Amino acid sequence: MDSLGSVLYRSLLSAAWLLLSLAGSAAQTSTHNAQAPSGVKQNAAGAAKSYPPALVESGSALFRQDCSFCHGRDAGGGESGPDLTRSKVVTADVRGDKIGAVVRNGRPERGMPRFDLSDRQISGLAAFIHTQQNAVPTKKGGRKGVDVSDLQTGNVEAGKKYFDGSGRCATCHSPTGDLAGIASRYQGLQLEEQMLYPKHAKSRVSVTLAGGQTITGTLEYLDEFTVGLIDATGWYRSWRTDDVQYKVDAPVNTHVELFSKYTDADIHDLMAYLQTLR
Length: 278
Hints:
- By secondary structure, the protein is an alpha+beta fold.
- It has helices at residues 3-21, 53-66, 68-71, 88-92, 97-105, 119-135, 156-164, 182-185, 188-196, 252-257, 264-274; strands at residues 32-33, 41-42, 49-50, 204-208, 214-222, 226-230, 235-240, 245-249.
- It starts with a helix and ends with a helix.
């Protein structure tokens, strides 16, 4: 097994555990419609959004003015602020709801002041930050600057055998179903990250209120303070975790449980097989 592949694999595991441990900010407690605004487009993979160039540019100018000293001009981390392209809050953000909450409330305990920005300014900031996050996997020379060829070292047949047999991947996934064409939607490191830590997999959550009513939906936000979901009507609802009981059915947990069972050979072989699903 090549040393580069082993280093990449172990780095991805570390990143996945970091993603699981990061605490997000408190979500908004108001109820609002979850549909995307005009001009914001979701791609076929559901992995990234595109924004009107004018909105991104306005957000870029505002970010350079108020945010770049701490978070860097490209939102990749700066003098004292973290890398926003790796932020759990940014990844979970929808239309600036979570980014806006952090910006407007600040994080005094971490030295971040509050900013009194309009909804339009928040939308611009969110568009710029998400655009920077979407571009990270294509950048060379950074933490994610990995060529596709670096991850093409496994055995396809061994990977298929692992998928169908000992890895039990076929229990939940199908190469002609949910994984059909996955190698066309994700390449290289993106594909390996999706395999190890499928961050775009939708989790379900059931929330039981104090009065006994149970509300179910797609999990949209969860930290130690707040649980939020999109219900069957498409509305976002959230509660303080101290006030309710909740249970999360998260497909990603199955992948996390495999971390201690994978060998380097398993990862390389499985990647080789997944790269044939175009």
